[in-house]
Amino acid sequence: MTEITILALYGLLVILTLILQATGGLTQLGMGYLLGSRDEGRTVSGIAGRLERALNNSVTAMVLFAPAVLLIVVTESRSNETLLAAQAFLIARLIYLPSYAFGIVGLRSLAWTVGIVATVALYLLAL
């Protein structure tokens, strides 16, 4: 497995999060609202609301992680350490999603921290 493969897998995880969040939104808001103009701002609650926030966080994480991986590849800085950091990121994000969706606060925060530290490590390893 390479850092680019991990980036692709994380992209698929973000898409899965989007699908889960949209399904929850459909259940709470109805098809009419989702297909409409959405001029009035409605919010979702419970797991659907947490999935919406997890999706927003996942997109932010992607914006930070993807350039780090691309930097590693372009500068030919791949190493065991960069692979380990990318793997740690992916595992952390795999833990983050269900822990956020089900409200496991301590685990969610730990997973977020591991993910951001792994991302910073990738940038530093590319220098």
From TrEMBL:
Keywords, alphabetical: Membrane, Transmembrane, Transmembrane helix
Record field: transmembrane: 7-34, 54-75, 82-103, 109-126
Subcellular compartments: Membrane
Location (main, coarse): membrane
One Gene Ontology CC term in the entry: membrane
Family matches, as InterPro entries: MAPEG-like_dom_sf (IPR023352), Membr-assoc_MAPEG (IPR001129)
Name of the protein described by the UniProt record: Membrane protein
Organism: Roseobacter cerasinus
